Amino acid sequence: MGVSRAWLSSVMAGETRLAVLKIAIALKISAADLMVATESNLRAASKLRT
């Protein structure tokens, strides 16, 4: 699952909480688990670039 930095920034700023919740519900996972997966994917992508 890929996530853009702009989207993640808007989540962190509290601008898209409802969208995050809707995505988590659609995936049948908690919003916290979605954020953990997002962070993990961003770290993995960062390691691939270096």
How would you characterize the overall build of this protein?
- It comes from Pseudoxanthomonas spadix (strain BD-a59).
- This is XRE family transcriptional regulator.
- The chain has 50 residues and is mainly α.
- The chain has one domain (5-49).
- Helices cover 76% and strands 0% of the residues.
- It has 3 helices and no strands.
- It has helices at 5-12, 17-27, 31-49.
- It is globular, with a radius of gyration of 11 Å.
- The mean pLDDT is 84.
Give the amount of beta strand, in percent.
Answer: under 5%
Which percent bin holds the helix content? over 70%
* Element-by-element helix/strand order: HHH
Q: How many β strands by DSSP?
A: 0
Q: Residue-averaged pLDDT, rounded?
A: 84
Question: What gap, in angstroms, lies between the N and C termini?
Answer: 20 Å
Radius of gyration: 11 Å
**What summary fits the major beta sheet?**
none
Structural class estimated from helices and strands? mainly alpha
| Domains, number | 1
Using the alpha-carbon principal axes, give the shape: globular
Count of alpha and pi helical runs? 3
Low-confidence segments: none
Protein name: XRE family transcriptional regulator
Organism: Pseudoxanthomonas spadix (strain BD-a59)
